[in-house]
Amino acid sequence: MRHQQLPASAEVVRRVQETADIFTLQLRLDDPSDPSLLTIQPGQFNMLGVFGVGEVPISFKALTNDHDGTPLLEHTIRAVGRVTRALSALKPGDRIGVRGPFGHGWPLAEAQAKDVCVITGGLGCAPAVSVVEHLFVNRSAFGRIHIIQGVRHSDDLIWRTQYEAWARKPDTEVQLAADSAAPDWPWFSGRVTELIKRLSLQPERTRVYCCGPEPMMRASAEQLITQGVNEDAIWLSLERNMQCATGHCGHCQFGADFICRDGPVFNYPHIRDRLGLKGV
Ligand SMILES: Cc1cc2nc3c(=O)[nH]c(=O)nc-3n(C[C@H](O)[C@H](O)[C@H](O)COP(=O)(O)OP(=O)(O)OC[C@H]3O[C@@H](n4cnc5c(N)ncnc54)[C@H](O)[C@@H]3O)c2cc1C
Ligand code: FES
What we know:
This protein is an alpha/beta fold.
């Protein structure tokens, strides 16, 4: 069995340009019989490495199948710096290193028979895809599903047809918000926290999974609590620079926690007092 610290080699099978700086990679492992990377859970992440450049943590988006049934790992990435730009320059046939899966994902067993509200901002929608797909695959295990996504501008929305398809599913509410919107934007114009006020939640039976910029997650959690959601029922996914991803180097330290080892998904009361503080 491959040691978790050793990268597995994977081929880029497909590359989809989602927006000017966001792209999705579909990866086929050179050794598909290695089960460890394919047991990844919603909310966990992999370290994707470009040989000679470096590695970055990227959330698991989806596990799909190629035409011949070979499993493909899917990650959606925004090109912001050295490594993500190198990932962006990859073409089908190129190879990268993949280490993982790392961290704790969303506590899905705890949400059984409850309503689940998935709130995302910006590219937080990418890791949310895996959890939403899990909810639909195991539909009878959960109550009502609310999917909320906020973007800065309506032009930033990706996967519009995916949201429209989710909205057609039974007992599912999909709401999208844009801070500023083009005139033909059919959804809510304003902040995601304003949109949360309009949701028809049953607070006592709702579990919330939130992924996006930290100020947006904090404001969303505070708003949900004023609407009666128990703070123990709210889970946030945090991001920090990482290196080892196994709790050894200290790069991702967040107070007493290492985000790679103890997160990236945390229960809100556990991190509430540290959110927004610099240097913790
Ligand atoms: C658990 C986890 C999951 C993630 N999932 C995704 C994902 O699915 N898709 C995606 O596009 N990105 C994701 N990220 C963020 C991604 O890891 C960073 O964008 C990446 O490390 C930047 O590396 P770089 O070498 O390209 O940029 P750098 O040259 O290192 O930095 C460029 C800019 O990005 C900032 N930055 C660097 N790392 C991070 C980070 N971890 N979080 C926030 N800002 C950072 C730097 O401060 C700088 O301003 C995730 C991060 C974590 C910790
Ligand atoms: S990245 Fe090394 S401790 Fe988390």
